């Protein structure tokens, strides 16, 4: 059975997204940045979500992150912790 994708491909960088190469300067795990980009839209660009996400956006970022790890787009961390600026996601 093939694995189904619910979120954009992690390398799909649209005008309202943040380039994954910015992950280091934002102190954000690249998988988290890809997940933020997956949730972003023209109405709510990735930088707005990265800076001040809504509760629903946070939930979707976590779901996208889990999907990217499950599908093998990113390797899981040993401790299940993924940085998001001064915060983190634990899965």
Can you put this structure into words, describing what you see?
This protein has about 90 residues and is an alpha+beta fold. The chain has a two-stranded antiparallel sheet. The protein has one domain. The protein has helices spanning about 30-40, 45-50, 55-70, and strands spanning about 80-85, 85-90.
Key features of this structure:
91 residues, alpha+beta, two-stranded antiparallel sheet, 3 helices, 35% helix, globular
Poorly predicted regions are none
Kindly report how far apart the N and C termini lie: 25 Å
Q: Helix and strand succession?
A: HHHEE
Number of domains: 1
Characterize the overall form.
globular
Largest pleated sheet: 2 strands, antiparallel
Average predicted confidence as pLDDT = 96
The chain-level structural class is alpha+beta
Total E-strand runs: 2
Q: How do the strands of the widest beta sheet line up side by side? A: 1-2
C-alpha-based Rg, rounded: 12 Å
Helix content: 25-40%
Q: What is the tally of helical segments?
A: 3
Report the sheet-strand fraction.
5-15%
